[in-house]
Amino acid sequence: MLSLLELTGSINMIGYAIATIGPALGVAWIFASVINGTARQPEARGAMMSTAFIGFAVVEALAIIGIALAFVLN
Questions:
Q1: Terminal Cα distance for the chain, rounded
Q2: What is the DSSP-derived secondary structure letter of residue 4?
Q3: Domain range summary for the chain, segments of one domain joined by +
Q4: What does R_g of the chain's alpha carbons equal in angstroms?
Q5: What are the residue positions of the site described as Reversibly protonated during proton transport (predicted)?
Q6: Cα(64)–Cα(16) distance, integer angstroms
Q7: Who has the most CB within 10 Å: 2, 18, 42, 56?
Q8: CA–CA separation, 6 and 19 (whole Å)
Q9: Does the model's pTM come out above 0.85?
Q10: Dihedral angle over CA of 43, 45, 48, 53, nearest 10
């Protein structure tokens, strides 16, 4: 059995794994809001989807920056 002092490897990857919770929740909330808005006003679906894709891109950019930093700081 390994003790904590015997563990080796990069703690950056563990940090990134925990940090992916933020973007995952962000994407879920963005598209849940679009689904809710579409259910309330179906005619506004186009405007909501274009805004949702911009938000999705921003949230995913945060995740990509996080993985890049995890590899760079290794």
A1: 26
A2: G
A3: 32-74
A4: 18
A5: 60
A6: 10
A7: 56
A8: 25
A9: no
A10: -160
CA gap 44, 34 in Å, rounded = 10
Judge contact between 22 and 69, C-beta under 8 A.
no
Which pLDDT tens digit goes with each residue over 19-44? 889 899 999 999 999 999 999 999 99
Cβ atoms of 51 and 38 closer than 8 Å: no
Is the pLDDT assigned to residue 4 strictly greater than 80?
A: no
Give the dihedral sign, CA 57/62/64/65: positive
Place of tokens 């909501």: 48
Between CA 10 and CA 19 the distance in angstroms is 15
